[in-house]
Design goal:
The protein has four helices and 17 strands. The protein has helices at about 5-45, 55-60, 105-110, 230-240, and strands at about 70-75, 75-85, 90-95, 110-115, 130-135, 135-140, 150-155, 160, 170-175, 180, 185, 200-205, 210-215, 245-255, 260, 265, 275-280.
Amino acid sequence: MVNVGNNSYVSKLHECDIISLMRPKILVFLSIITVLVFAVLLTLPRPEKRVLGTESQSIVTTKPVINKVSIKIDTKEYVVAWKFVDNLEKLELLPNFSQKQPALEVFEFEQCKVLTSAGFYTKDDKPTGLFTTDGKTTRKFSQNSLTNGVLSINYFGIPRITATTPEDPLRIAIQVGPVLIDNAEIRKLSLVNDSEDRRIVAGVTGENKLIFIAFYDPESVYLGPKLVDLPNAIGRFEEKTKIQIADAINLDGGTASTFYTSEVKLSEIQNVGAFFCEKN
């Protein structure tokens, strides 16, 4: 008879001896593998160290988008710069009739996001028509064929361009003109005296957003389109930018006009009677 039980026991003893003999070799092999893996890792390029917040810093330093396009009227090319008013509650109408402060000083001192000239004034340093700021009216509306419109903002922050003074309480109102676009229809202008001057325009879109626009000659920034060509110039601007203007009115022009943003700076030569300033 074969003693199966004893043979099984002997077999197990042989297996244990084999494992005991191989264990040191296995440990040596694993040690070698570990050293090789570590050596390979040391040769790999290290990732660049990233400082916390660098992503946000790269966003901050990104160059701002400059709102400028070129348009043509007949054969003449003009540059158009524009800026939307982001917060109408921070828009102010600043009188400068007697103060006669330079636009750049006002832009920097008031910390304006946008600063434009606003309307005309008389030889005795007074507004030519309606002028209301902070709800206080210093001059009432007067009929005039040239300054035939009112740019106003009520206490609900709604901008409007109208032919007469609105009846509701107004925080800001200024009589300027002429009206260039009325309810999305281009006005045809007829003027006896006209000249090629830089133009500053205020517009209201269909979404009730207020926009300031400057039209000027790139070769001589105090020059620009004639007033009679300004409605068509706005039409070219709409085609280029896809910005739809529902109403538009001329604010000022020539050497007494100004337009300042962080990207565009058009200074004046003559004193500016009043400014629109959206504060930061």
